Amino acid sequence: MFSSVEAGLIYAVMALGVYLSFRILDFPDLTVDGSFVTGASVAAVLIVNGANPFAASAAALLAGFAAGVLTGLLHTKGKINPLLSGILMMIALYSINLRIMGKSNVPLLQQETVITKITAAWQQAGLDAALNQLVSFTGFAPRTWAVLVSMAIVTLMVKGLLDWLLKTEVGIALRATGDNKPMVASFSANTDWLIVFGLGLSNALVAFSGALVAQYGGFSDVGMGIGMIVIGLASVIIGEALFGARSVARATWAVIGGAIVYRLILALALRVEFLETGDVKLITALIVMLALVVPNILATQKERQRKKRRARQLDRGETVAGAKTNYKSV
Amino acid sequence: MLELKRITKVFNEGTADEKIALRGIDLTLAPGDFVTVIGSNGAGKSTLMNIISGRLSPDTGEVWINGRNVTALKEHARARYIGRVFQDPMAGTAPHMTIEENLALAYNRTKRRTLSLGVTKQKREWFRETLRTLHLGLEDRLAAKVGLLSGGERQALSLLMATFTKPDLLLLDEHTAALDPARAELVTELTKQIVEQHRLTTLMVTHNMEQAIRLGNRLIMMDGGQIIFVAEGKEKEGLTVERLLEAFQRIRGSQFASDRAVLSS
C-alpha cells in the first residue's frame, strides 16, 4: 500500500501531462505511450554513462518536450488528425527509444539515481527516525519516507507550476484553445503554436515522470509505456469523479488524487487470487470503462426514476413541483 | 479604414458545384463609418466577412485595413485590427471559462501574451466597470462560467469583448439573428451605443431589413456576389422596407428571396 502511494505520486506527474493534453487542449494525445519511455531511456542511458541523475532527469524532460512539439507540428502544420498524429509519433518513438538505449532494457540497479541520492541524504539527516516516531502509534514503519516525501514535493511543485501557468495570459489562451479554437484566433492568438507548446509541455511532464519511474523501478524498458495513455486517462477520470474539477487548481488536485487511487485499486485488484501481473492492462482498461460508463448508467436511472415520480404525482392530481415559471430577462 | 479592392472568390472551381461567391467587390469604409449589409440567400455576405477577417483568402483582390495591405496576413495576425461578433452565441466565447477569463483573453487581442497573470486585481476592477455598462448584472458574476449565461447575455458579452479594446474595424455577422426578438433588440441597442461611444468603424451583416435601415450611415445590398444597391445619408434616412424591396426588384427583375429575412421587427 505504501509503495502504491509512492508510485501514485510519481505517475501523477504523467497524469498531469495527460490532463494538459486531454482536458485543457481537448487533444487525445497518444504520443504519451512513446514519450514516457523516451524520458525513461534518456535518463537511464545518461545515468549509466555517468551523468548526474538530476541532470539526466532534466534531459528526459527536454526530450519529451521535443516529442510533443513534433506531434503538435504533425497536427497543426501537417494537418493530420489529432489521434493519428499521436499514434504516428508513438510508433516512431518506439524505434527511437530502442536507438537511444541500444537494446530493449537498461538496468539501473547498481547506479546512483535521483532516488538513491535523495534516500541517502535523507537517512543521513536522520529524518526517518523522526517520522517513524511521529507515527509510532500506528505501529507502521516503512523502509524509508524519503521517496514518498520527495516525490510528493516534486508532484506538488509541478502542480503549482501548472496551476500558475494556466492562469497567465498565455495559459488563458491555451485553455481557450481547447474550449473554443475559432474564437481564440479571432482574439489574435496563434492557436497552432499554442497547441504545439501545450503538447510539448504535456509530453515533457510525461517524459519526466518516465525518468523518475525508471529510477524508482531500477530499469528502463522499451515496453514500459504500453497503455500509459490509458493509465493517464484513468487517473484523470477517477480523480475528477471523486474530487471534482470545478477549477483548474481543483482539477489538478483531483488528477494527483486519481493517480494515487488508481495505484491503490490496482494493488487491491492484484491481491485477488486468480489475477496475475499480466492482467494489469486489462484491469486498467476495465477501470477506465467503468469510470466512463457507470456515471451514464446512474444518470439514466435517476432520470427514469424522476419521470416515474412525476407521473405518479400527476396521477394523484398534485401540481408538479418545480414547475413554477421563473423568467429572467435576457 | 477598410478598403476592399476587386475581391473575387470562387468555391469548388472546375467542378459541378462551382459557385462564384464574390464577383469583384469594391468597398471603402472611412473612419467612423457604420455600414449595414443586407442580401438574399447566397449573396456572398458571409464570404465577404470571412475574407475581411482572414478566415478565407480571396482568389484575387486586396484587403486594406488602416492603410495597410493585410491580404497575406493570417486570421490571428489580422485580428489585431479587427473585433468580431458571430451569429452563433456559442462562437464568440469560451463556455468552460469564467467571464473574467474570457475578458482577459479578449483584452490581449492587441497585445503580446506574456507569462504574467491574466486576471490581475487591476484588470478585474476594470472588467467590472466595463461590464456595468451592459446593465445585465454580469459585473457581479465575474467568476461564473460563461456556459451558464443565456444566449442574449453571451452575445452581449461577445460584443463587449470585441469592442472594449477599440478595434480599427468591427465586424458583426448577423449577431442578433439567433436571438429572440426582445434579446435581439437589446443587443441591437447595445451595439448602437457602443459603436457611437467609441466611434468604431463597423460593417454589420444583418437579415433584418428594418435593423439595416435604422442603424448606421450607409446601407448596401448584395446579390449574386455583387453590391447592387447603396444608400447613404439623406437617401438612407428616407428608406423603408418597401422601397428596399422595390429597389431590389427594379435592379434584379426578380423578387428578393431569403428564407431568413425579417422584413420588419
Automatic annotation (TrEMBL), chain A:
Q: How does it sit in the membrane?
A: Multi-pass membrane protein
Q: Name one Pfam family in it.
A: BPD_transp_2
**InterPro entries assigned to the protein according to its UniProt record, in alphabetical order:** ABC_transp_permease
> Membrane-spanning regions, if any?
6-25, 54-74, 81-100, 145-166, 193-216, 222-244, 251-270, 282-300
* Assigned keywords, A-Z: Cell membrane, Membrane, Transmembrane, Transmembrane helix
The cellular location(s) given in this protein's UniProt record come to: Cell membrane
Is-annotated flag, keyword Protein biosynthesis?
no
Q: Where is this region: Disordered?
A: 308-330
**Protein name, entry field:** ABC transporter permease
Which lineage? Answer: Bacteria, Bacillati, Bacillota, Bacilli, Bacillales
From TrEMBL, chain B:
> What membrane topology was assigned to this protein in its record?
Peripheral membrane protein
GO MF term (any one): ATP binding
- Domain ABC transporter, which positions? 2-249
Could you tell me which InterPro entries the record lists for this protein?
AAA+_ATPase (IPR003593), ABC_transporter-like_ATP-bd (IPR003439), ABC_transporter-like_CS (IPR017871), ABC_transporter_ATP-bind (IPR050166), P-loop_NTPase (IPR027417)
Assigned keywords, A-Z: ATP-binding, Cell membrane, Membrane, Nucleotide-binding, Transport
Task: Give one Pfam family.
Answer: ABC_tran
Compartments in which it is found: Cell membrane
Q: Does the keyword Transport apply?
A: yes
Check the record and name the PANTHER family matching this protein. NITRATE ABC TRANSPORTER ATP-BINDING PROTEIN, TAURINE IMPORT ATP-BINDING PROTEIN-RELATED
Q: What is this protein called?
A: ABC transporter ATP-binding protein
